[in-house]
Amino acid sequence: MFPLILSILAGVTVALSGLGIPVIFDKMLTMLAQAAGATALFVIGGSLVGKSVQEAGADTLLVTTGKLILQPTLAFIALMFVPGLDDVSRITILLLCAMPMFSIYPIIGGNYGFRGQCAAILVVTTLSSFVTITALLGWIH
């Protein structure tokens, strides 16, 4: 099994068990969580050195369109079939679907030899999301 899936399962198991984790592990995990964002940005920057966004090619357009347009559209269609959901929850789901990928996207892609391409895609989706999220907020308003 994949380490990411195993760690998610372990976290869910501990959370559902009601057991607390020892203080020393809690401090260690807190420190790691605080460093994760900066580390991810360092990896993204290092992955983009010497690359241009055009090198990612059609994949960049495909992933960006899928993430920023197709996913929120499919979520909107799916939400039409969910009865009893309040408007705040519907808007929250739509906005979360319209967000670009998490900054660990290139790190995960790097495990499969796509770190540079994933970093370029992340930059394009992040920049494009300024337009798409603004349009979505205007449409919701």
Descriptive account of the structure:
The chain has 141 residues and is mainly alpha-helical. The chain is built from 6 helices and no strands. It has helices at 3-17, 23-48, 58-79, 87-98, 105-110, 115-140. The protein is flat. The model has no long low-confidence stretch (mean pLDDT 84).
Radius of gyration from the CA trace? Answer: 18 Å
Helix-strand topology string: HHHHHH
State the end-to-end CA separation: 44 Å
Helical content stands at over 70%
Strand content: under 5%
Report mean pLDDT, rounded to a whole number: 84
The count of strands amounts to 0
How would you summarize the topology of this molecule?
Elements: H1 3-17, H2 23-48, H3 58-79, H4 87-98, H5 105-110, H6 115-140
In brief, what are we looking at here?
By secondary structure, the chain is mainly α. It is built from six helices and no strands.
Features:
141 residues; 6 helices
